[in-house]
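Continuing the series of single-chain predictions for the mutant panel. This is the parent chain; the variants come on the following pages.
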Amino acid sequence: TYFYIIKHFTWLPATVTEAKIRRALCYIAMGWQFDAENILFKIKTDDLTSGKLKKLYDFAMADFYIRSGDNTAALPYLQRAAATASGAQKTRLNFLLGQTYAALGDNTRAYTAFGKAGSASSAPYRTKFNARIKQSEVFTGSDITSEVKALRRMTRYDRNKDYLDQVFYAIGNLYLSRGDTVNA
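Parent structure:
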């Protein structure tokens, strides 16, 4: 369908550009990185005539680089995509941004990004829970007391009864990261 639009709707350049980006996203989803790269790298900045197209392009480039294993190249696109997204997509992109920062070793920014993903009111509880656990994994402060207390509070809630192993594992990892094997 996208190929048809690209070929037969040349008098609508914005529509053709969107079709190219969406076609590239399809290729990325199928694992056809080379074909997606051929499309994405031929799109010029001048072709991105609206905010919608810029957001879609940033999302596609972030997706391309992440699936290619190049987190460093994906970061600026992912930052812009997360900043301009809304609703559930914003939550997903902030979580992915946190994972990307963590993979690059920038734990402070990862902690902040996971915090944004977990604080979104539209996020399902499981996402908020996972974001909080991931936050504890990248905690960089020297005093872990407040972090441990926050995780221990999570054990009191009935909705976390099926996830207690993950909470206690996160607490244990916090203690281990500080060399405290007795409390771990």
